[in-house]
Amino acid sequence: MLPSLHDYFLISYEVHCEARRITLRARPDTRPHPASDPSLDRIVVFDGVEGYHFWDDAFGNIIFSLTEVPVEKLLLDRQTEIKESYRMSGAPGPWAADLASADAVLSAKGIRGFELYSSYGLSGWLLAKQLEVRGGPQSAV
Which of 100, 116, 130, 138 could join 47 via S-S bond, C-beta 3.0 to 4.6 A? Predict the structure, then answer.
């Protein structure tokens, strides 16, 4: 089970293309006194990334939730976007050439689906093999 990131501020995100890794750094909302202590941060690392799309980065993003969703549902919900992205640039990957078989191809690789929702700013989705959460009150995989 993923830990709650509700009302965490998204401090940064990094896309490491060669390693196929995306790292999110989030810090809890400690208002009225904003925290600047990095020891409070949660680091969310997605490894084996097969595709992703983030949008609406407001440079002050507040996370609503990070949830795991079935790959089949993610592909169905985002099929128009994925088809157009593949047509224009070949992204998010060769599996997107045939969305009818993409679920089977990704499932055979052990890929999981994730959706990031915001209260303000950046939202998106990811397809990745592994997820690790470090820091914060608890760590989870």
Answer: 130
14 contacts: CB under 8 Å, gap ≥ 6: 21, 22, 23
pLDDT tens-digit series, residues 3-25: 899 999 999 999 999 999 999 99
Question: Quick one: pLDDT band at residue 35, thresholds 50, 70, 90?
Answer: low
Q: Which among 46, 68, 50, 74 has a CA at the least distance from the CA of 2? A: 68
- Which pLDDT score is estimated for 40? 85
Tell me the residue type at 130: Q
Q: List phi, psi (to 5°) of 31.
A: -55, 150
> Looking at this protein, which amino acid is placed at residue 40?
L
Closest CA to 96 of 46, 53, 47, 44: 53
Whose CA is closest to 127, among 100, 98, 92?
A: 92
